[in-house]
Amino acid sequence: MGTIINPFKDQYHSSQSFLTKKLLPWTIYCILPIAVFRLYFYPLNLPLSSIDQFPNSTPITIKPSLSPPSQGNEGTLNATSSCDYTSGKWVPDKQGPLYNGTSCGTIKQGQNCISHGRPDLGFLQWRWKPNQCSIPRFNPNTFLQLIQNKHIAFVGDSMARNQLESLLCMLSTVSTPNLIYKNGEDNKFRRWNFPSHNANLSIYWSPFLVQGVEKSNNGPNHNKLYLNRVDEKWGSELGTIDQVVLSIGHWFLHPAVYYDQDSVIGCHYCPGLNHTEIGFYDVLRKALKTTLNAIMKKSEEAKGKRIDVVLTTFSPSHFEGEWDKAGACPKTEPELEEKLVEGMNGEMRNIEVEEVGFAKEKSDKGFRVEALDVTKLSLMRPDGHPGPYMYPFPFANGVTERVQNDCVHWCLPGPIDTWNEILLEVMKKWNLASTPVQSSPFHRNILFIPTPMATPATLSLSFSLDPQHHLPHHYCCATHFKPHQTLLFNSTTPLPKYPLLFHPKSDRYIVKSSSSSSPPSPSSTTAPEPDPEPASPYFLDTLGTGRFLTNEELDKLKFLDGFSYSQELESGVLCVRVMRAEEMDMTISLLAESFAESMAMASAYDTLLKFFIKQYLMERRSLMPHAVTLVGFFRKKKQQEEDDEEEEEELAGTVEVSFDKRGANTSPPTPTPPKNSPYICNMTVKHQLRRRGIGWHLLKASEELISKMSSTRDVYLHCRMIDEAPFNMYIKAGYHVVKTDTILILLMLQRRKHLMCKKLPVVTISEESSDEECKGCS
């Protein structure tokens, strides 16, 4: 009999010659547009809110079950509701993932499907929807708050690493991690630190959890497992760990000999050895029992320190043919009908869920353990694996007879991001159970976590849930911009003890802050307020990250909601204001068209280009009010014979403005502008509407907004040396060249650029109120 061969064994070495001789030239050529895009838009990690509180979200009561879920109507999530998230379906999701293959630097190359040229990006546009509830979108700020001053360890095989790398990418959208430790081949032992929260995330390679000796080329062709003791590579560090996320399964399928107290008790697929074949199901159960008992014992011994445990259930593979031929996992869409978890997948999953249940019954109240039951939802995503795109552009020279496929691990971004959304809900449930909640009718929607502050204050919230109170949608001019009136923001506004949390379905808000050391009473929290102001659509925006806003930021956000700049041109009227969520798609199309034109990119890159731009705009939008994207709508003048006809507005241009260091790009273009100064970039005018002064007024609108939003007068922008017309416009507007790229910048595949600066005039506060109506914008 033959032996079972690991399809991924030595896959890198077998492809070295092919990669070097054939892939390198066209890989550089194909990645060039992506690299240029990166240099053009400069995506960055989002800065973290300075407020140490949790955003508005409601935890799911985690309820994995061995039996089918009970039938019932879908309910609203709250602190006491029960949700079996294991039964559901994948539904289309236009918003897509938090990150992409270029904005996250911790993705293992074998899972970076986008950068490796996977042409179908539809697999990114799906979201898991349980039958009876909804899982909130992942909020990286909340996760970081929950792990502040803690050490979270992912222990297991490559699926544990896959999940951790997904989590790192999601968290890095708000805070940049530092790699502080690495060891072992293929970086099997690594640790990252998030200095913003003094939080550590580690990966420990331990594919059996118990002590094991992995098979090697120079030794026996089977693994050795010692089922009575845990692997000391992670077990010896349990005292430093606050939470463990376990993930194992696939390595138990390999040939192995099993030991208990150094005595052989059996084996799995060991021809030629005089051992009893016992399979691997009971061995998996024994390994889990040993592991959970060891963690439970350590948690009981550590006085005042608790070790929480999450066990991620078995992740199915989706091989539909030979692993080294094209089409091994060819699906491009999820399974739309709910599938049964059966066979080996079901056995592995059931063992893991059962052992978690046994551990709960055995443990005292101080030990917390949950099963992260992702087997079914993962089974329904055969489209989420790298497949042949575990290597860059595998079909650049045509379809070859042999091509290696990875139908086990998951693309990043991809379906595995959902695992971490559920993980966050587990942690929120634990936090809710251990933290007193304010007695309030809003406690089901708002989670208050008291945090000591230097100046305590109370916050009174009043919400109106009346669906009739929607803001009227108009293009701009709700408040006409007053050029000589400076908006004053009080930088010394005291921070409330409980920062304002907005419920996503609320259409009104009122904020009242008063200095007090006592918490608000239920009556003061729920008292109705007369004539509340309508909420800004940016508070209700589904693209928000849940970041907390200070009172000063709230004032600025309200001002941005009403900001408008209007100018009558020879051929029509231009109205400029802040981009809204529903206008993102048209803005993406405009930017993609402009970028493709300037770089002479082929139309084949259009979908990929729009995807990157969308990710970038979502990241920038979440930085409001520290940065903003403005859009200009143009309405043609009516002809005399067309007095009764309304001319439609069309998107004419867009420009991006950052006001301070928190809104600045972490990786700005060269020459580098000061990060704490206002910066204008990505100005684009629709091709058919150029030469009408629209670019000039986008610039003027940006300057007007900066004069209100920033106390710094120096404004910076970049202009490529080859762009003569924009350069002349900037000179005419009063900008001067501060610095110019050296010729060496060409070696980085970038155009030479001027860094230009203008000192805005100091505006005076005018006591006169301007009640002018905006002309041409309604």
From TrEMBL:
GO CC list: membrane
Annotated Low complexity bias: 513-528
Chain spans, region Disordered: 511-536, 639-677
Pfam families: Acetyltransf_1, PC-Esterase, PMR5N
Compartment(s) of residence: Membrane
Classification via InterPro entries: Acyl_CoA_acyltransferase, GNAT_dom, TBL_C, TBL_N
Compositional bias per record (Acidic residues), positions renumbered to this chain: 641-651
Membrane topology: Single-pass membrane protein
SUPFAM superfamilies in UniProt: Acyl-CoA N-acyltransferases (Nat)
Keywords linked to the UniProt accession: Membrane, Signal-anchor, Transmembrane, Transmembrane helix
Stretches assigned to the Trichome birefringence-like C-terminal domain: 135-425
Gene Ontology MF, one: acyltransferase activity, transferring groups other than amino-acyl groups
Domain Trichome birefringence-like N-terminal residues, every copy: 82-134
Residues of the signal peptide: none
Location (main, coarse): membrane
Domain (N-acetyltransferase) ranges: 646-735
Transmembrane domains' residue ranges: none
Protein family per UniProt: Belongs to the PC-esterase family. TBL subfamily.
Protein name: Trichome birefringence-like N-terminal domain-containing protein
Species in which this protein is naturally found: Cannabis sativa (Hemp)
Taxonomic lineage from the root: Eukaryota, Viridiplantae, Streptophyta, Embryophyta, Tracheophyta
